[in-house]
Amino acid sequence: QAGFVQGAISNLVQEMVLGGILAFLVLVLFLRDARYPITIALAIPISVVAAFGLLHATGISLNIMSLGGLALGVGMLMDNSIVVLENIFRHREKGLTAAAAAALGTEEVQRAITASTLTTIAVFGPIIYVQGVAGELFTALSLAVAFALLASLAAAMTLLPTMAARLQSRPPSRDAPARWHRWVQAPLDGFDRGWQAFAHCYHSQLERALRHRGRVVVGSLLLLGLTVPVALSLDRSVLPNVDQGTFTARLELPRGTPLETTAAAAARLERVLLADPGVAAVFSRIGKQVAVEGITEDRSGVHTAVIDVRLKPGQHTPRVLARLRPRLARATPGELAIESGQATALGKLLGAGEADLAVRVRADDLAEGLAYAEQVRGRLARAPLLTNVRIGTELGQPEYLVEIDRERAASYGIDARAVADAVESYMRGRVATDFVAFDRKVPVVVRLPEAARRSLATMETLRLDGVPMRELVRIRESLGPVEIRRLDQSRLVPVFADAVGRDIDGAVRSAQAAVRDLTPPEGVRVEIGGENEEMRRSFRELGIAFCLALLLVYMILAAEFESRVHPLTVLLSVPMGLIGAIFALWVFGAGINTVSLIGMVILVGIVDNDAVVKIDFINQMRREGLSTRAAIYEAGRARLRPIVMNSLTAMLAILPMMFGIGAGAGLQAPLAIAVFGGLLTATALTLVVIPVVYELLDELGDRIRLRLGRPDAQSLPAPAAAVAEATATAPVASD
Predict the structure, then answer these.
(1) Rounded mean pLDDT of the chain?
(2) How far apart, in whole angstroms, are the C-alpha atoms of residue 389 and residue 495?
(3) Per-residue pLDDT at 175 exceeds 70
C-alpha cells in the first residue's frame, strides 16, 4: 500500500495548491489591485503552518485525512480575511484614511466573523466523538480544519488590518486605469460589467421576492420536498469505492491438493494477468499465509494461493477486471475470488470488513452449519446483485479420526490409555535413546517409515498384546477445521458476498429474497449482516452528530445575536444547503455514505456563514434607524460582494478535490461534492430566502409584542410607505 499512500498524499497536496490558486484568481477578479488578494492569500500559509504545529502537539500525523481537511479548508481560510478586507476596502472608497478604514472596518465585522468561525468549528466537535468508521476516519480531518480556522481568524483580526493600514492612503479606484496589459485589462473590464449586471439583477429579484414572500416560502418548501425522494433513491454504503489501482485474486483448489499443484495453477494465473496491457506487476503467495492483524484472517492452506495485482498508472480497476474475469475463469482449475475496492487492505483497515454482506449461519453442530451454509452459498451465487460469494470458514486438510472402542478394548483386558499410546508410538514414534556427540544430545526416534505412517492399511496390521488394532479402534475420514468461530456460544459459519456496484441496501434485499424460502434445519439460525450493520451504525452516529452540530451552532448564534429568533433564521440556510448536496450527489452518482454524510454535517457550520454576515449587517442598519426592509436592501448592497466572494473561493478551492483524479481521490470526493453542491444552493437561496424569512419573523414578533401589550413594541409602517421607502432605498447597481 506504500505506493497508493504516497500517490494519495501527493494528489491531496496538488489539490490544495490548485484550490488556493483558483481562490486567489477570484480575489483578483473582484479586487483588481493585486496587493489586496496577496494580503488575503497570506492567510492560507499562515493558517496551514499554524495547523501543522497544533496537529503535531496533539499527536496527529500528516495523512490522507488530515491533509484532506486542510485541502477542504483552503477556501474557508480566506473567508474571514475576505469579509474584513472587503469592509476595509468599502470604507476607503468612502474617503477614510488607510488606518481609520482598517480600524473601523475590522471593528464592524469582528463579531460576525468570530461567530461564523465558531459555528464552523462547532460542527467538528460532535464528529470527533462519533464511534465506528466515521470517527476513525474524520477525527484527524476535523481537528485539521478546526486548527486552521482558528489560525485564520487570528490572522484576519490582527495581521490583515495591520497590513491594510500600511497600504497607500488613497484607495485605488475601480474606474481608474490599472497597470495591466491590454490583454488582461479587457477580460477584467468585461467581468466588471458582468458583475454590475448580476448585482442589478439580484436587487431586482430581491425586490420581487419581498413583494411575493408567500411564493418564495412555498417554492422553497416544494424544492425541499422534492429533495426527499431523490435522497431515498441514492445508493447507500459505508464508504465510497476507492480505486487503489490494485486488486487481489484468491485461488482455492480442492482440499488435499499438494503445494506443487497449487504453485502450477498460480503460475498459469500469473501468465494470464501479465498478458493484460493494464497490469504492471503481480506478486503471488502460495500455501499457508501469516495473518495480518486487522486485515487478513488465517484461513489459508497448501491448497490456496493469493495473487496481488498492481495496475499501471491511469488504469481503472473495474475496466481491467471486466477484461480479465472471462480469461481467469477459463484458466482457473478451482475457485477464484477477486477482491477490489472495499475488500482490499485499505477497506478492511477502515473497518469495512471482509465483504459487503455476510450471512451468518449459527448452529450447535458444525457439520449441520457447514451443510446449510453450502446451500446458502448456492442461492446467493445466483442472486443478481451479489458477486464473489464464498464461505468464510476454512475446513482444513483431510484427516483420519481414530476412535477407541472402549467396550471391545475392555473385553480384551486392554486399557484405553494403552491403545492411545500404542497408536501414537506407531504414528509419531518414540524416543528410544539419546546419541551424545561431545556437547550435543540427539534424540533417537523409532517409528514406522513415512509411507507406512500415511497409509490406512497400516492400522490393519498393527497389534497390541497380540490383538489386531482394527479390533480396538474405529477409523473414519473427515476434514479438520482450521478455526471454529462462535457467536453467543453457537458455532458460526459465515457466507460472504460483495455487492454489484455500491448499493448495499439492494444487496441485502437480494440476499433476503434468495434465502427466504430456504428452511433451515432444527438448531440452525440465519442472520444477514456485514457492512450494512456498520452502515446503519455510522448513519445513526452521524445523525446524532448532525443534531448536536445544529444545537451548538444555535447556541453560539443566540449568544452572538442575543436573540432566540435570529439564529433560527440563520439555520434555515442548512436545509437550503442540503438541497444542493443531495442533488449534487445524485448528479455525480456518489450516493450516500459516511464520507458524504460528513460533508453534510460540515455544511451545518459552513452554509450559515453568509447568513450570519448578512443578518448581522441588517441588525446594525436597524440600530442606526433604518426600517427592516430598508436595512435588508442596504445589506444586499453592502454584503453581496463579500458573500459571493466567500462562496466562490470556498467552492473553487474544493473543486480539484471534487474532480480528484489519482490514488485516494475517490475517498474524499463525495465529501467535496456534498459541500460544493450545498454551498452553491445555500448561497443562491440565502441571498433571497433569508431576507424574506427575516422580514416575516420580524413582523410576526412585532405582532406578538403588540398583542401582549409590551411597551417596546414598534409600530409597523404602512404598506404603501414601506414600499415607497424600499423603492427609494433600493440601489440600482452595486459593486
Answers:
(1) 77
(2) 7
(3) no
605-633 pLDDT tens trace: 788 877 888 888 888 888 888 888 888 88
Contacts of residue 404, Cβ cutoff 8 Å, sequence gap at least 6: 416, 419, 420, 472, 473
CA distance 321 to 487: 35
What pTM was estimated for this model as a whole? Answer: 0.70
In angstroms and rounded to an integer, the radius of gyration of the C-alpha atoms of the chain is: 35
Residue 11: pLDDT band by 50, 70, 90 thresholds? low
Query: What are the grid coordinates assigned to 251, written together?
Result: 485461488
- Looking up cell 489501482 gives 245
Q: Where on the phi/psi map is residue 488: left (φ > 0), alpha (ψ -120 to 50), or beta?
A: left
Confidence of residue 661 (pLDDT cuts 50, 70, 90): low
10 Å CB burial of residue 396 (0-12, 13-18, 19+) is middle
Burial grade of 617 (CB within 10 A; 0-12, 13-18, 19 or more): buried
Residue 627: φ, ψ to 5°: -75, 170
Angstrom CA distances, 575 to 245, 546, 650, 690, stand at 37, 12, 19, 12
* CB neighbours of residue 22 within 10 Å: 19
121 pLDDT exceeds 70?
Answer: yes
- Find how far residue 401's CA is from the centre of its chain: 50
Of 34-38, 338-342, 725-729, least confident by mean pLDDT is 725-729
